[in-house]
Amino acid sequence: MSGAAVRIGVLFGGPSAEHEVSCASALGVARALAERGHQVVALGIDRDGTLRLVPEPVLAGHLASVAAGRAIDDRLPVTGPPVELRRGSRAGTVAVTAADAPASRYVELDVAFPVLHGPYGEDGVVQGLLESLGVPYVGCGILSSAVGMDKVAMKRALRAEGVPTTPHVWFDAATWRAAEDPEKLVVGLRWPLFVKPARMGSSIGISRVAEGDDLVAAVEEALRHDQVVLVEQGVTGRELECGVLGGWRPEASAVGEVRVTGGWFDYRQKYFGDADPMIVPAQLPAEITERIRELSVRAFTAIGGWGLARVDFLYDETAGEVFVNELNTLPGFTAHSMYPKVWAASGVDYPEVVDRLVALAFARHAARPGVRPAGGAA
Ligand SMILES: Nc1ncnc2c1ncn2[C@@H]1O[C@H](COP(=O)(O)OP(=O)(O)O)[C@@H](O)[C@H]1O
Ligand SMILES: [Mg+2]
Question: Does 150 sit in the ligand 1 pocket, CB within 6 Å?
């Protein structure tokens, strides 16, 4: 791809609860890509799943207003004609066609950049679509996206590689309903407990349950979001986050801290909190910082990650223990998000991050199974 401008389709919006955050992340990504000389095509996904090609002047207006420091709006709008993606005229490209007239092609893309958070965009669904179209795309592949989204599968992968996770149990809806004494399902865990749906995000469906609180209600709430539920032992301590970027030899960023009030980082604090709760870099003993960076790379490798992930930790200062809480394979990507901030603190600015991610997308595509490396080694 060297030389020619690369045409990049930024996919954003989507049906998940994180639709708005995705629209904000996408504006940041689009702007950085444009700054780096790439041609950006904005593809918004409605909450009902309709894909729309954002008209060029609308995108240009948003990019220009951000550049001039007078953002009309801090997010990209999901607007424009309904479109579909089909195989492009050249191998490895994808065509954006009118939804009702497949022969009418708007544009062809060299690479897709999903900036989607949560189920559908971060769990392997969109990644599978892009694989089937044969186009390079940014970020984790199908398996690592799916494993990263499913907290039960994720913890299994981490434990298998010796990465510490909090003690927990999990069960499905049928096992829960059949249990005579629900509390027996959680024996061995110390209170407070955290009850979570296996596959969600943004703290949706999660409850903190102290001794004497209603465990049954918490499990029922989690079951409204997924048929599989985890119950974890609570860790009293600090929340730390670290960025991972790379392919075969991923690197870890500086470590950031999220200052949480009220015991845990719930939905309201994540999106409606007034204080900026991020501290970058986190004030930590050097050996804890190093341990977190090392565990981040190991966690990323354990799920088979590619491109990027943000690895979130719980740090019990009193016991000196560090646990990986979760990996986010498409973390928030606005200028104020933790992922760009921890990389900036490591000397890698936002445009450089997105540039590297695009290069990694091409590198994985070139190395996919069945493709011989260029140079023709037998
Ligand atoms: N085992 C735990 N101990 C203490 N706090 C926890 C634990 N698990 C989750 N939390 C709190 O709940 C928040 C959301 O949980 P998390 O597993 O990160 O779900 P999500 O994918 O929705 O972000 C965390 O940021 C943290 O504040
Ligand atoms: Mg989280």
Answer: no
Strands (E), 130-198: 168-172, 193-197
CA–CA separation, 116 and 126 (whole Å): 9
Q: Which of 13, 29, 14, 9 is closest to 334 using CA atoms? A: 29
* CA-265 nearest atom, ligand 1: 27
Intervals of the chain under pLDDT 70: 1-4, 66-73, 274-275, 372-378
Task: Write the residue with the smallest CA distance to atom 9 of ligand 1.
Answer: 194
C-alpha torsion angle, residues 116, 118, 120, 122 (rounded to 10): 60
147-151+155-163+236-329 CATH pick, 3.40.50.300, 3.50.50.60, 1.10.390.10, 3.30.470.20: 3.30.470.20
Question: Quick one: which atom of ligand 1 is closest to the CA of 312?
Answer: 18
CA of 44 from ligand 2 middle (Å) equals 25
pLDDT of the residue at 262: 78
pLDDT digits (tens, 9 = 90+) for 198-225: 998 888 899 999 988 899 999 999 999 9
Does 137 sit in the ligand 1 pocket, CB within 6 Å? no
Does the CB atom of residue 325 touch ligand 1 within 6 A? yes
